[in-house]
Predict the 3D structure of the following.
Amino acid sequence: MKRVLIDTDPGVDDALALIYAFKSPEIKVEAITTVNGNVNLETASHNLLIILNLLNLTEFPVIAKGEAQPLVKPLIDAKDVHGEDGLGNTRELMTSKGELKYDIAECQFSELSADDVILEMIDTYPYELIIVALGPLTNLSKAIQKDISCFRKVQSVYLMGGVFTEYGNITTNAEFNVFVDPHAAHEVFNAGIPIHIAPLDVTHQVELTGDRLKEELIGREDIISQFISDSTHAIMTFYQENVGFYGFHIHDALPIAMLNHPELFMSVDAHVQVETEGELTSGMTVADLRKPTVTDSNAIVYVEVDADSFLETYFKTILS
Ligand code: BDR
Ligand code: CA
């Protein structure tokens, strides 16, 4: 069983990744930290409580709020993709009894900030704790700035971010999480820790269509199925209008699958750097993936996934 801390900015695909992590027998979620990204920090933190409430947990993980701003760049969000509330405009849905359909869990945020919780968890489980980062890397960089020797005792960081061989999803060259805080990504990539990257190159290989989702959820009345159905409508409409298919990419679930089912992926060792300043290229991740035997590798970049098997195992796990 893998002990995991998840750093996240929920986000529809973050929600689907969190559900997957909690339902995975291979994983024990010890802590969750929130960061600004798809929505601001307060909304992301509120959304985490909504997601935790869906899961019917007997024991909550430690949860902590993190950074409300990127290290240097001005704040942006992705409400156009994820809805005004970050969860596909589900926040105000009511039941027939006049109650909130998706209420929040009664779980208190730690008094510690995310960077302190990250360091404390690494200290508690040295060389064992795995960090899964699903948003901008601001919290991780703050922890590195505070105590790099402690941070280096992390077993590894699995992150969704970057793009190498195709276009970005926020600018031509950049993927959203790295674009939001490239200075933080720069610190993480240069911290001297084992890093596993799920870039857009691999997350784009999994197209979760509206038809597939309908097929998987048909006849199901449970709250998780209802939430998935309700929360994905807005993002799939965005994709239909902007990307060309009614569906979406389930980006943030991929790092969880890399932990659970590494056999579904192909990866290469690479030396990855981030452009922090470029007028046109801010947030661009730069690596030559044609040289799988680099001697100065700082990351394992995942480049191929068996998309059918991933979707099969994903739905089997979350709907069990
Ligand atoms: C990443 O950006 C966010 O919108 C998603 O949640 C994911 O983490 C994809 O570029
Ligand atoms: Ca995310």
Observations:
- The radius of gyration is 18 Å.
- The mean pLDDT is 97.
- The longest helix spans residues 223-242.
